Amino acid sequence: MPMNTVAVFESEAFNHTEPKDDFINLCCFGDDLARWLMGELAQRGFRIDERACGLLLSLFGGRHRNVGRSGLAAIEDVLSRSARVENLRWVPWKEFRDGGVLAA
Q1: Could you tell me if 11 and 81 are in contact, meaning their C-beta atoms sit under 8 angstroms apart?
Q2: pLDDT of 79 higher than 70
Q3: Which residues pair with 4 in a beta bridge?
Q4: SS3 of the chain: helix, strand, coil, percent, to 5
Q5: Is 37 in a helix, a strand, or coil?
Q6: What distance in Å separates the CA atoms of residue 37 and residue 16, rounded to the nearest whole number?
Q7: If pLDDT is split at 50, 70 and 90, which confidence band does 45 have?
Q8: Shortest CA distance to 65 belongs to which of 6, 1, 14?
Q9: Are the beta carbons of 2 and 92 closer than 8 angstroms?
Q10: Mean pLDDT calculated for residue range 95-99
Q11: How far apart are the C-alpha atoms of 67 and 103, rounded to whole Å?
């Protein structure tokens, strides 16, 4: 059985409609979400550096990366406790990639 590694949620707290001048692709959002998530992880004792920013931005930019179980657990903790995040659920990468989460 595939591991659920993609967090799908709703939020009005982060920019998802207005491209910024520094976006490489005008449809790729998530910079503010990545920075918020890094701050939340840092508050929980995770060491965050510039490489983490690049990894998180690439995760939100659509590239599938290997993230260990402890990393997923930390992200789950942040997202599940935040009032900024609604209807959080975790799905397998293949289901997300194939568009199966849109119908749920």
Answers
A1: no
A2: yes
A3: 92
A4: 40, 15, 45
A5: helix
A6: 16
A7: confident
A8: 6
A9: yes
A10: 82
A11: 26
- Residue-range domain boundaries for the chain: 30-104
CA–CA dist 86, 42 (Å, integer)? 22
Strand partners, 8: 89
Give residues with Cβ within 8 angstroms of 11, minimum separation 6.
Answer: 33, 84, 85, 86
Look at 96 and 43; give whichever has higher pLDDT.
Answer: 43
Which residue has tokens 């568009």? 99
Cβ neighbourhood burial of 8 (10 Å; 0-12, 13-18, 19+): middle
Ramachandran quadrant class, 28 (left: phi over 0; alpha: psi -120 to 50; beta: rest): beta
